[in-house]
Amino acid sequence: NSVAPYPANLTPKPSALQPLCASKDWLAKWVPHHTISNFAGLGRNTRAAYGSGLLVYHILCDSRDIPEMEHAPAKSAMISSFISALTRSYSGQTIQGHVYGIHAWHMLNGLPWSLHEDQINTMLKGAAKLVPPTARQDLRS
């Protein structure tokens, strides 16, 4: 079962903690420096969507030279910066899915999540207001 290489602009630094694999497997195979939990409760499409957010998160951390051991648990300021970095490039729904994917990865690996639901919702609402028309998806099409 071969996996195609990542596109150049979506390639995290080589890591034993985030091996090359299909997006549907990222939540299960990409681990922080803690042990893994059971991922069976998440559907394949959810795992793939959440895995995409995890990829973008690790690329952002790598682009800012954040040491791998500091990728998780994610600090509130990092998640806020992550949302800000995606704003004006992604739809509000995509940004929300990416954040939920990072949150799920934390939960499934027994890591603390420092953001409260109201913090996340406020940041996501603000980001959604700044989405350019080119990033908006017409769900009717």
Map the helices and strands:
Blueprint: H1 26-29, H2 44-63, H3 76-86, H4 92-108, H5 117-129
Distance between the first and last residues' Cα? 34 Å
Q: State the assembly state of the protein chains.
A: single chain
DSSP summary: helix tally = 5
State the share of residues found in helices, binned by percent.
40-55%
Overall pLDDT confidence = 82
Number of strands: 0
Unreliable runs: none
Give the topology string: H per helix, E per strand: HHHHH
Global shape: globular
Description:
There is one protein chain. The longest helix is centred in the middle third of the chain and has 20 residues, at 44-63. The chain has helices at residues 26-29, 44-63, 76-86, 92-108, 117-129. The protein has 141 residues and is an all-alpha fold. The model has no long low-confidence stretch (mean pLDDT 82). It has five helices and no strands.
Summarize the structure in short.
With 141 residues, the chain is mainly α. It has helices spanning 26-29, 44-63, 76-86, 92-108, 117-129.
Which characteristics define this entry?
141 residues, mainly alpha
